[in-house]
């Protein structure tokens, strides 16, 4: 067996078997070297320039640890490791920032990797005895082994929490990934957690909760994403599906170059603002106690956000492109399907960990609806947005800026 060692700042030395190394060298994976893991979070955290390529390596490493823990046969082991390595090749530029564009124009998400697997990658998989169709099912969560990559305690999440905390410097993403994996027991009807792993599992759930407002939903990151999405929408207006597909297959640099040289003046202007970090500001930043949560339970589409932005802009007497509406889905309850095995019985995780109720309450309290605009129009846009969206004005709006 040929193997190569790669040094990773998060997990240390990662051993690559020959088939995994050849997958790593495929064009679809090499492209991920140039796609930022955290989209526009580098506008907040200068160190957040790590890429989907690094994350794919880390996810593969933890998947290998899990496969060895579960003592999977060689064919299943290769399938899961390959799926972990390729699970993010469907991402567009700036990762999750382009996901709504992909859903609107291409009617798919980044987990649907079938259209992205090229002949080179398919050939390497075939030589390794891995069926590309089966691998796609694992990535999409439609296979009995999917839980290793997409589950309650999956290796994808373990790696990105550790990696994102490392590169942002946020002290909240600490997860003892290998301890957690060591205490997972795989049965034919699902995965069970040994009671000695409860603390490690709780640390993962706490890390997810604390990283949401400080990293994943930081308002500056959301503003950057919203500006990018508007620039991309304007740029893609009137394009055919093939041109849009090509645009969404760019890496970050290629995408930004297209926007900065776009024929559309709105796209060019917003892309330049992003490049120079002249960002829009918060006109409204409302919690769930200021709105009717049922109205925005599922969040809104890009199309709906632009419709609302146009209404707010008209009432404020400014141009539609000077208003951005950001309404993410209200977080769903975390309800873990993992059971816990003690000496005497198997019970639900929630029974042994009442912290989940507190974490669910915290996640709801963290949710924010954002209305952003250019600095000189904040007051007018804030008043218009509160009227149109029926938002209760906060008592101390000035504390947001």
UniProtKB/TrEMBL annotation:
Entry-linked CDD domains: HDc (cd00077)
Molecular-function annotations in GO: dGTPase activity
Gene Ontology BP term (one): dGTP catabolic process
Signal peptide: none
Species of origin: Methanoregula formicica (strain DSM 22288 / NBRC 105244 / SMSP)
Record has Hydrolase as a keyword: yes
Coiled-coil portions: none
Segments forming domain HD/PDEase: 48-170
Keywords: Hydrolase
Upper taxonomic lineage: Archaea, Methanobacteriati, Methanobacteriota, Stenosarchaea group, Methanomicrobia
Transmembrane segments: none
Name listed for the protein in its UniProt record: HD superfamily phosphohydrolase
PANTHER family documented for this protein: DEOXYNUCLEOSIDE TRIPHOSPHATE TRIPHOSPHOHYDROLASE (PTHR11373), DEOXYNUCLEOSIDE TRIPHOSPHATE TRIPHOSPHOHYDROLASE SAMHD1 (PTHR11373:SF4)
């Amino acid at each position: 067996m040929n193997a190569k060692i790669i040094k990773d700042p998060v997990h240390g030395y990662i051993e690559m078997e020959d088939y995994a190394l050849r997958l790593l060298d495929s064009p679809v994976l090499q492209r991920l070297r140039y796609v930022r893991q955290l989209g526009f979070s580098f506008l907040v955290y200068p160190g957040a320039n790590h890429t989907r390529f690094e994350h794919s390596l880390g996810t593969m490493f933890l998947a290998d640890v899990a496969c060895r823990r579960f003592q999977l046969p060689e064919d299943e082991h290769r399938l899961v490791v390959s799926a972990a390595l390729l699970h993010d090749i469907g991402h567009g530029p700036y990762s999750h920032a382009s996901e709504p564009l992909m859903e609107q124009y291409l009617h798919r998400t980044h987990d649907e990797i079938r259209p992205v697997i090229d002949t080179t990658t398919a050939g390497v998989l075939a030589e390794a005895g891995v069926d590309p169709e089966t691998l796609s099912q694992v990535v999409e969560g439609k296979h009995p082994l999917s839980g290793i990559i997409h589950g309650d305690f999956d290796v994808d999440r373990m790696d990105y929490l550790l990696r994102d905390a490392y590169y942002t410097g946020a002290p909240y993403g600490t997860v003892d990934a290998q301890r957690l994996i060591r205490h997972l027991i795989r049965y034919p009807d699902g995965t069970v957690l040994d009671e000695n792993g409860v603390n490690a599992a709780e640390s993962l759930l706490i890390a997810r909760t604390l990283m949401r407002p400080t990293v994943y939903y930081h308002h500056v990151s959301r503003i950057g994403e919203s500006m990018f999405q508007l620039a991309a929408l304007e740029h893609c207006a009137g394009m055919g599906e093939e041109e849009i597909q090509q645009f969404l297959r760019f890496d970050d640099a290629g995408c930004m170059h297209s926007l900065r040289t776009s024929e559309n003046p709105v796209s060019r202007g917003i892309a330049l603002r992003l490049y120079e970090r002249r960002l829009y500001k918060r006109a409204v930043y409302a919690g769930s106690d200021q709105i009717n949560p049922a109205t925005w339970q599922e969040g809104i589409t890009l199309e709906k956000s632009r419709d609302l932005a146009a209404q707010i802009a008209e009432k404020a007497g400014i141009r539609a492109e000077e208003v951005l509406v950001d309404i993410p889905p209200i977080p769903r309850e975390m309800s873990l399907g993992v059971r816990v095995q003690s000496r005497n019985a198997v019970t639900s995780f929630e029974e042994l960990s009442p912290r989940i109720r507190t974490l669910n309450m915290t996640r709801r309290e963290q949710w924010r609806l954002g209305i952003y605009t250019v600095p000189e129009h904040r007051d007018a846009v804030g008043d218009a947005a509160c009227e149109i969206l029926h938002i209760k004005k906060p008592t101390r709006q000035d504390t947001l800026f």
